[in-house]
Amino acid sequence: MKHGPDIARIAALIGDPARANILTALMSGKALTASELAGEAGVSASTASSHMGRLLEGGLVKEARQGRHKYFALAGEDVAQVLEVLMGFAAGQGHLRTRTGPKDAQLREARVCYNHLAGARGIQLYDSLFAQDFMELRGDDLFLTEAGQGFVRTLGVDFDQLVKSRAPVCRTCLDWSARRPHLAGSLGRALFKRFEMMGWAYRVRDTRIISFTSDGLRQFNMAFPINPGSHG
Question: Which of 64, 84, 162, 179 has the fewest Cβ atoms nearer than 10 Å?
Fold first, then answer.
């Protein structure tokens, strides 16, 4: 008898095309109803309900009720990271579901990965924090330096509150489109929320695409310069 984690069970849950479409739809970070997920999966409402039952049992999604309505979301950031890595592997192997189109380019530029910024702009943010000595790697863990803590406070992030939470402040997530890291964790969530609140960027309706306004992109590039020598 073999011992250890049963990856076959999780792989089987993700491996069904309808369930894979459901999980991908939930990568937007939004909670969706069973009927909305049925549309995403291209299956009937009863079939979607069966799939959701299996995903709930497997711990990949969670449900919440609001009045008479039931909503589903990914169980947590760990699930999103697993899906992002699998997307990167599939893309690297040439396993793409559709031909490249305009939306593909937009997704690669900037998109939401569950609740943080991904794509080229997410990688830019991650690289720039390192280049400006705002973030450092200690062993396998990411930390903000003292200067980095001051920097995120200037952007309106309540860093002290992030530290109090149980979730890791800084966490690496492997970007599927470039297979390079972007920033997850509570800081990744908080920064993305600030970008939205400041009007730098917004979610494109019914997609995972993040669109930056012209002024927002200018502000973003000033805060997270590709060439760190241009900072300030």
Answer: 64
pLDDT at 227 over 90: no
Nearest CA-CA partner of 130 in 182, 190, 89, 77: 182
What angle separates helix 77-92 from helix 17-26, to the nearest 10 degrees?
120
Q: Which two tokens stand for residue 149?
A: 């803590």
d(CA 70, CA 18): 19
- Do 84 and 77 touch, CB atoms closer than 8 A? no
DSSP 136-166: EEETTEEEE-HHHHHHHHHTT--HHHHHHSS
Residue with the two structure tokens 């909305």: 36
pLDDT tens digits, one per residue of 199-210: 999 999 888 899
Q: How far apart are CA 41 and CA 39, in angstroms?
A: 5
Q: How many CB atoms lie within 10 A of CB 177?
A: 21
Q: Give the pTM.
A: 0.74
